[in-house]
Design a protein that fits this description.
Blueprint: H1 3-22, H2 28-35, H3 39-45, H4 49-74, H5 77-104, H6 110-133, H7 143-149, H8 162-177
Helix pairs in contact: 1-2, 1-4, 2-3, 4-5, 4-6, 5-6, 5-8
């Protein structure tokens, strides 16, 4: 893809993500205007609103997943894991605003759910492996179990103090992942 075409696509995805959070009823014309592109450019990249919604969602999932490696490169594993869970919580809160649009785009199909789950589970596995190597968590930690324990992130109220609540939830999960204290020699 040419650089200018990629810039247009990125601008459309950025504008659509922000617009869809405000209202699932935003029109394709409004998104094109917000992105600073013509309708033809928008429709060439995304022939339908459903295609655009799905692309926005995929992009955001990829960004959340990719942030795991970025955080590990900059922080110790425990801190990277905590920062990533905060990012996951923020992602969960913004997705609540997109829930109607995603349902309208029929995003709940098994194929799409599996792809999203696999990306998130892969990122978490990377973080948990690093935390295990640094002996911050037990070595028998299953990322799927941790995701299940973190499912409460999607139940938080975006209008409430979800940041503090997500920190408390993570602290509870992390306490459960700590390695058992070494037994004293007999």
């Amino acid at each position: 893809m040419r650089a200018d075409a990629q810039q247009n696509r990125d601008a459309i995805l950025e504008a659509a993500g922000a617009a869809l959070l405000e209202s699932a009823d935003v029109s394709m014309n409004q998104i094109a205007q917000r992105a600073g592109v013509g309708n033809a450019t928008l429709h060439r990249n995304f022939p339908t609103k459903d295609a655009l919604i799905l692309a926005v969602y995929h992009r955001e999932v990829e960004q959340v997943a990719a942030s795991a490696a970025e955080l590990l490169a900059a922080h110790p594993a425990k801190e990277a894991l905590q920062l990533w869970v905060e990012r996951l919580a923020q992602y969960a809160m913004t997705k609540q605003g997109l829930a109607g649009a995603l349902q309208a785009a029929a995003y709940s199909t098994e194929e799409h759910f599996t792809d999203v789950y696999d990306q998130i589970a892969g990122a978490l596995t990377l973080l948990l492996t690093a935390a295990e190597e640094q002996r911050v968590i037990r070595s028998d930690t299953d990322p799927h179990d941790v995701l299940l324990a973190l499912a409460g992130l999607w139940q938080m109220n975006p209008a409430g103090d979800w940041r503090a609540q997500s920190s408390r939830l993570f602290a509870i999960v992390l306490r459960g992942l700590r390695p058992a204290p070494a037994s004293p020699p007999t």
